[in-house]
């Protein structure tokens, strides 16, 4: 249960908060609108984004699960690892994509040897393959605490930090992994992914070339080298790479399509249609099949002049960020927008998106650094300065530095206070800083905006800033409508500002979809309190009876709760 749900305080009703926003070239957009822009990003496939839409996204090939040189200790470090039947069987099952069986096996191995790090790290690597990144990260840290020098540690951090959008951390971990495993195709391949996200395509191609030497039959390295050469606007080298990939895998639709696109740019339409028709005729359920049909039609209509002839690196990473956000890869989106901002340091709109996305994922240090850089570069933009102080005020709240938060909110108010966010914040900000030991953890890495927004709301609720908290819970639910903890926290906030009918509505609806969740006892206690606050004795008693049934000791503790003053003499409390 989130801390905001457990630790809210009594507050009076007040004006609902409008979230902080950042301006863009088309006018201001709020944090809410930033979330909703996902709907618009599907239209990237025109204008400057057309090259990216036709060319870049989504290789169907995969490098695969890391090899034994990374996943297990060698015989000089731990003699039993590479002879362990359970570990060897696990790797065999993973290679066959039998993830469920592999998971059962490695969990049993961990139960039998809880003091060993290898089972935890193998499970972490498997969870990563299953795209269960949060669980993977948690187990990675647990395994690291047991065996800090395990050969998989840096490799796993290289990947997970990239997923989180932590550029410097991923780069550092990848370098260590390559140093530890110079003859591993996997370490070179993963380093190439991080380098490409950073825009260092020449270095990425060097790592891919090394991976190709170590894994000579895998077409993916040549395909990705070709894509990187496209980025570098070196079409001759891109062509050679795609042809090499096709020679290794004639069924590679990605490389075939890119050749068709490349020849279209070069006005070699006959060769282009040869490759594109070959892909279209497969009728496979693959994005490049439909893309081939669209490109063939464009060729026939003589419309290929609208295709951008060159890749603009800044635009490439900006479009990558947007597309990744749209597909739910939020950390990778943050990774790419940082590169776009670095490549075009004077582009105001790009840096505003960087601030919005860093704030959305609760990356405190990155948000503060980006806000201050943006404010410094545009010191005469009064609206931007006001929004910057709003964001800096929020960051200080997250860190429990309420006096500094107040000073920033006051600066924002003096500059016009867009959306009246500073006014609302100042009205709710506690006069005295609460016990600093009670500050909620705001350094936890978040993989989804709903988790980050909910946690941010919990911090505001912790300080009794319920209007700010409600706006953030609302955003969390717009991002993920089924996010239960945000619903419970929102219900608690409404209770504490004296709006019990909204608390009841939220909690009763949540009961229909989650009748027996892990926080059901707290859920029922709050529901009973809301009914009592509303004056509905029957509703309160019904929920108190449920509490009595599952945990009578809680009912005894509620006997002296002011919320149940009118029910103090009820028979329930005497039992």
What can you tell me about this protein's structure?
- A two-stranded antiparallel sheet has the order 1-2.
- It is an all-alpha fold.
- It has a domain at 449-574: Tetratricopeptide repeat domain (Serine Threonine Protein Phosphatase 5, Tetratricopeptide repeat).
- The radius of gyration is 27 Å and the shape is globular.
- It has helices at 3-6, 31-36, 50-55, 68-71, 85-95, 99-112, 118-129, 133-146, 153-164, 167-180, 185-197, 201-214, 220-231, 235-248, 253-265, 269-280, 287-300, 313-326, 330-343, 348-360, 364-377, 382-398, 402-414, 421-428, 449-462, 466-479, 484-496, 500-513, 520-534, 537-550, 552-558, 571-574, and strands at 21-24, 27-30.
- The chain starts with a helix and ends with a helix.
- Helices cover 66% and strands 1% of the residues.
CATH superfamily of the domain at 449-574: Tetratricopeptide repeat domain
- Average of per-residue pLDDT values: 87
CATH architectural group of the domain at 449-574: Alpha Horseshoe
Largest sheet: 2 strands, antiparallel
CATH class of the domain at 449-574: Mainly Alpha
C-alpha end-to-end distance? 29 Å
CATH topology of the domain at 449-574: Serine Threonine Protein Phosphatase 5, Tetratricopeptide repeat
Count of DSSP strands? 2
The helix count comes to 32
Condensed summary:
By secondary structure, the chain is mainly alpha-helical. It has helices spanning 3-6, 31-36, 50-55, 68-71, 85-95, 99-112, 118-129, 133-146, 153-164, 167-180, 185-197, 201-214, 220-231, 235-248, 253-265, 269-280, 287-300, 313-326, 330-343, 348-360, 364-377, 382-398, 402-414, 421-428, 449-462, 466-479, 484-496, 500-513, 520-534, 537-550, 552-558, 571-574; strands spanning 21-24, 27-30.
